[in-house]
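Per your request, structure below.
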C-alpha cells in the first residue's frame, strides 16, 4: 500500500521531522527528492508508465522526457531530418516565423488529464493530447518536470552531461533508478564518443594546412593536423 511518510496518496503535508528531511529550502519547506527513472528505450518507458497506473502511486505527479523525434507535432519540423535545428530557429524567430505550438504549452501542462488527480500517462497520451490542444508535448513535458515526483527518461538523459544541461536536469540529492543497468556501459561509451567521416577529416586537414602555412597559431594547429593525417 501507499507509504506513510509522504503526501502522495493521503493529501497530507510531509512529515516535518528532521529525521525524515535531510535538507530544507525556502525556510521550513522540506526539499523532497525527485525520482529519475532511466530506461534503455522509449518503448520501455511506455511499459513502465502503464505498470505505474496499476499501483497505489498512479496519481503521483510525473513526466516523461523524450526527444523531439517522439514529441514534436509541428507539421513542418516533425517531418524534417533535423528537428532540433529547425525547432531552435522557430523559437528564435528566424525568417520571421514562430511556433504556435510552443506558445500553447500552458494549455497542455494545465490540462486535467496530466494532473496528479488523474493517473499516470505515457508519451502517446501526451502527444495525442498535444495534437488535440495544438500545444507542444516536448516543452510541456519539460515544464512538468518542475513539479514532478517521478521523471521517466532514457539513460542518456542522465548520463550525458550536455543533455543534462540542455534539459536542466539536476541530479544532486535526487533518487536515480536505472532499469536493466547492465546496458549502462554501452550508453556511457556512446555519450563520450563522436563519429566523423573521412571526408570531414580531409576537409579539416585542408583548413589546418591553410592555418599552418599562414602562420596562424602554428603550435596549436600543427598537432591537430598531425592527428587528422594519422586518422586518414
Amino acid at each position: 500500500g501507499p507509504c506513510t511518510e509522504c503526501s502522495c496518496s493521503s493529501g497530507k503535508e510531509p512529515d516535518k521531522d528532521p529525521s525524515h528531511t535531510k535538507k530544507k529550502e525556502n525556510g521550513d519547506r522540506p526539499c523532497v527528492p525527485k525520482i529519475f527513472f532511466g530506461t534503455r528505450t522509449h518503448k520501455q518507458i511506455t511499459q513502465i508508465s502503464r505498470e505505474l497506473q496499476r499501483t497505489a502511486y498512479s496519481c503521483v505527479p510525473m513526466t516523461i522526457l523524450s526527444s523531439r523525434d517522439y514529441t514534436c507535432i509541428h507539421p513542418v519540423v516533425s517531418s524534417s531530418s533535423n528537428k532540433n535545428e529547425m525547432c531552435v530557429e522557430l523559437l528564435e524567430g528566424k525568417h520571421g516565423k514562430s511556433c504556435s505550438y510552443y506558445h500553447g504549452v500552458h494549455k497542455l501542462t494545465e490540462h486535467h488529464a496530466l494532473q496528479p488527480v488523474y493517473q499516470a500517462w505515457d508519451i502517446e497520451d501526451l502527444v495525442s493530447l498535444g495534437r488535440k490542444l495544438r500545444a507542444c508535448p516536448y516543452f510541456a513535458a519539460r515544464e512538468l518536470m518542475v513539479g514532478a515526483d517521478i521523471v521517466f527518461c532514457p539513460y542518456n538523459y542522465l548520463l550525458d552531461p550536455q543533455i543534462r544541461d540542455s534539459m536542466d536536469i539536476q541530479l544532486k540529492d535526487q533518487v536515480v533508478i536505472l532499469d536493466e543497468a547492465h546496458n549502462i556501459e554501452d550508453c556511457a561509451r556512446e555519450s563520450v564518443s563522436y563519429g566523423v567521416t573521412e571526408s570531414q577529416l580531409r576537409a579539416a586537414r585542408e583548413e589546418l594546412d591553410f592555418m599552418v602555412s599562414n602562420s596562424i597559431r602554428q603550435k596549436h594547429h600543427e598537432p591537430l593536423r598531425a592527428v587528422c593525417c594519422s586518422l586518414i
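Confidence is low (pLDDT under 50) at residues 12-25.

Regards,
D.
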